[in-house]
Amino acid sequence: MLDLRGVSVMAMLGGILLLTGCEEPAASHADSGAPSWPPSATSSAPADLPSAVPADTTPKLPRAAASPTGAAASPRPTGTVTSAPHSGCQNLTATSAVKAAVTAEYQRSFPRFAHIRPVPQQFFYGQCGGVRYAATRFESTSGATHEQLVGMQDEGSATKYFRGTAAGMWSYLATDSFPRAPHGCGDVPQIPEPLAAAWGNCPVG
Q: Of 65, 82, 131, 202, which one has the fewest beta carbons inside 10 Å?
């Protein structure tokens, strides 16, 4: 005959095992049904990574070209400039010897005017770069014939221009046009412009 106490113990152990088996699947089922939440972004991000910086949306302007330096930066304005060969032009006082030499050269060029002299206050004399220039009008003197007087009425109203030679002589260059150019000797190409300016464009009168 079986021992009733042994049966009771076995029955109790079987009930405990049965209850344990029922609870474990229930717990597993509960765990499997729970929603899976994503990990927090802040907790998963490495601590040493810098935070994102929004992109700069400001439009970039093109850079201005660098300003040139030196002489090219400031171009010089153009205009009337005295040329270097004539920079040494100067007005001079004509001596009686100079006037006589110039008169003699005109008489050699125009022999019919034997009795002439420069018109007072109308003799211009100067030098440019070692070259002498002269300009004057002439008038008749005593002893002039009627033909010479008539001829000098036309010739005497025009200014004559002369250039000194290397030998110390003079050579006839030109005579004023008729009517006279508006700028006087400033319009005569044989006379350097700086010298014509120093002479005041050789005014008549």
A: 65
The two beta strands, 170-175 and 160-164, are antiparallel
The answer to the question of residue 106 being in a domain is: yes
Q: Which domain holds residue 148?
A: 87-198
Query: Does 118 have pLDDT greater than 70?
Result: yes
DSSP conformation letters of 137-167: EEEE-TT--HHHHHHHHHHTTS-EEEEE-TT
Average pLDDT of span 38-52: 43
Q: What is the average pLDDT value for the chain, to the nearest integer?
A: 72
Q: Is 80 within the bounds of a domain? A: no
Give how many domains the chain has, as a whole number.
1
pLDDT at residue 69, as a whole number: 33
Cα torsion angle, 90, 103, 145, 141, sign = positive
Is 128 inside a domain boundary?
A: yes
